[in-house]
Amino acid sequence: MAPVEVRAIQVEAAIHSIELEGSNVTSETRADADSYVAGTINSDELVERVRARYGLS
């Protein structure tokens, strides 16, 4: 399986888990996740962006 496929599966699983817990994923976070799946940012950058968005940096 190609890395992009693995990242896509991981992102969809994480989003599904968040939604099952009753939370929503913002369009900004989905855009960041799409960038991660495409390989334009790495997982550290994805986490950094999401943490900054919610004031957790």
Search tags:
72% helix, 3 helices, mainly alpha, 57 residues
Total helical segments: 3
What structural category do the secondary elements indicate? mainly alpha
As for the number of domains, it is: 1
**What is the average per-residue confidence, as pLDDT, rounded to a whole number?**
96
Give the radius of gyration.
11 Å
Q: Distance N terminus to C terminus?
A: 33 Å
Write down the secondary-structure element order. Answer: HHH
- How would you describe the shape? globular
Unreliable stretches (pLDDT < 50, length at least 5) are none
Description of the molecule:
- The protein has 3 helices and no strands.
- The protein is mainly alpha-helical and 57 residues long.
- It has one domain.
- Helix 1 (3-20) runs antiparallel to helix 2 and helix 2 (27-38) packs antiparallel against helix 3 (43-53).
- The model has no long low-confidence stretch (mean pLDDT 96).
- It comes from Paramicrobacterium humi.
- This is Antitoxin VbhA domain-containing protein.
- InterPro entries: VbhA (IPR041535), VbhA-like (IPR033788), VbhA_sf (IPR043038).
- Residues 10-53 form the Antitoxin VbhA domain.
